[in-house]
Amino acid sequence: MHAGQSAKLRDLGYDEIWLQNWLAGDPARLGLGEVRIVAQELTAPRGGSLDILAVDGDTYYSVEVQLGEVDASHSFRVFDYWARNRVRFEGKTHVAVLVVESAAGRYRPALEALAEYLPLVVIELRAWRGEAEVILVPETVVINQNLDVAGPAGTVPGEVRTEADWKASITPEAWAFHDAFIAWTQANLGEIRADYSPKSYVGIRRGRRVWAPLWFRRDGATIYLPDPDGLRGEQQSPAMDEFQERLRKEGLETSWQPTYNAGANPVPIRLRQADLAKPVVQELLRATFEILDPGAKPWSERPARPAVDAANLPTTSPSSGSDAAEPPT
Which listed residue, 50, 57, 250, 290, has the most CB atoms within 10 A of its CB? Predict the structure, then answer.
């Protein structure tokens, strides 16, 4: 066994074009899940070209690559291309991605601040030189915590949590809501998987997509759902106009937050276990689940359907505890 030495790609004779081609040659190297490359050097209408445009389902990743330490030019440029692609590919989820050798310099605090409000992922790609080879090691150093990134880039090292961690850190009442929510969904909607690895929420996944992230509160959770009509823009959908009025009659409030998960989950609702028995809540959950089906018709354009019957839900006695943090808006 021999110790490796850190190295700089430029000192080894490589340039940004080589790195860009290396990443595009095997998209899994980006760590963004099962992405495919749509374009390299994608020309923008008013000048400039994006290094890599990758896509996974309806999520588009605008990727800028830089050797050395991240600078102001690349930091701004990735958002320029991200903003243009939001217009070019309207109605999709868009994420800005910086792949750099180092993000430890002057602009790191600015990138961390931007990631609190914008869908940004910053990946450091460190080179280690051995006796006869060079190994590139990717590590996510900055990420918007509301983003659903399916691959390893979606997790910051040292922040992975387990089911046991979550159960120990929230109230029994909140955990009972977790159990009831999963049980009702599996019984009435279909197959799901609970992802306990994020540090701020438990992601209830349908396939590779987070359908319902649970941000726990003392007696339940705030959940961010897809829009029943499948919209992702600034304007609330016709479906949510109707659901909002019906939910308000049940004492429940929801809103429209187009920035959560880059617009893929814009519908927040605060629920307790007893709310899962309410027909309008069941209908909302079903509508947001079914809109993820390929070719699904917007809820507001479908014929009316009867509400789902309440499933057998476990009951618990109320217990006290401190609230968990809500996500940034």
Answer: 50
